[in-house]
Write a structure and sequence with these properties.
Number of helices: 10
Shape: elongated
Number of strands: 10
Structural class: alpha+beta
Strand content: 15-25%
Largest sheet: 5 strands, mixed
Helix content: 40-55%
Radius of gyration: 39 Å
Distance between the termini: 143 Å
Order of helices and strands: HHEEEHHHEHEHHHEEEHEE
Length: about 280
């Protein structure tokens, strides 16, 4: 009985050793397969990294720049017009204008009443303008805002609503010299009178710079200067604002007194031939 037990135990031990020898090669094979898969994955990741850094680097950089890099215009300051004594007749002062990207603003239509209130505009008309231009990326809503109005718009912090710096022309002498000076368009371009005649002299040349913007269009960083801005040059007229005012006052009084339809006065310095009032 004892011999039979010993014989059975010996056979079991031999079977276990054969099973262990059979499992060992199978485990090592799985190890090599797993190692090969990890190596292939690492090689694929390395190849992809090399491809992105060397082969597709230029394309990816251009795509990134197209989304966050913009060329911003630097508006040139228009030259002032002064009289012979340096008194200002026409000056440009910085103002803010409001423009929107209708595609971005379309997700905040419910905020348009607040924007209309800040701009002092009709709510229905503002909503109609934005809704009918959803295919555009740029739409002016208001030009030449006063500082308080611009501050109210800025405090709304609406997505798709932006403020840009422009210049607005002012004429301190008003109608006293208005007929001589003429006027400019909303884009600060001369339209009549001295403003038109000397537009090339008064108008500057806008500059340009490359900037980085965030997803809401706000400037994050100035990258480089593309073109330097050239401000307009000041223009000094031979007019004397004091004499101009007196001539205007007397002419207006004479027209009213005589019930005339029109009148004109020209005051000239007889020594130099310069026009002092017109």
């Amino acid at each position: 009985m004892k011999g039979l037990w010993s014989h059975a135990t010996a056979r079991a031990d031999r079977g276990a050793r054969r099973g262990a020898r059979g499992r060992a090669p199978s485990f090592r094979a799985r190890q090599w397969v797993l190692f090969a898969l990890l190596l292939a994955a690492a090689a694929g990741l390395m190849g992809r990294a090399v491809n992105l850094q060397l082969v597709d680097h230029g394309f990816l950089k251009s795509q990134g720049d197209a989304r966050f890099s913009r060329v911003a215009t630097i508006t040139a300051h228009r030259g002032n017009i002064v009289d012979r004594n340096g008194e200002p007749l026409a000056v440009s002062t910085p103002v803010d204008s409001v423009w929107v990207n209708p595609q971005e603003l379309s997700g905040s239509i419910e905020q348009l009443p607040h924007l209309a209130s800040a701009l002092g505009a009709d709510r229905a008309e503002l909503t109609r303008r934005v809704s009918s231009n959803l295919d555009r990326e740029f739409l002016y809503l208001a030009r030449g805002l006063t500082p308080p109005d611009a501050l109210r718009v800025r405090q709304l912090n609406l997505s798709g609503v932006y403020l840009t710096r422009e210049y607005r022309r002012y004429y301190p002498a008003g109608e006293v010299a208005g007929h001589v000076l003429g006027f400019t368009s909303i884009d600060d371009v001369g339209q009549e009178g001295t403003e038109l005649t000397f537009d090339n002299w008064l108008a500057g040349e806008n500059g340009a710079k490359r900037v980085i913007q965030d997803s809401r269009g706000r400037k994050v960083e100035d990258v480089e200067s593309i073109r330097a801005v050239r401000p307009g040059r000041d223009l000094a007229l031979s007019l004397d604002l004091r004499i101009q005012y007196m001539a205007y006052r007397e002419l207006k009084s004479a027209i009213q007194e005589n019930r005339a339809r029109a009148g004109s006065v020209v005051v000239i310095d007889i020594d130099s031939g310069e026009v002092l009032a017109m």
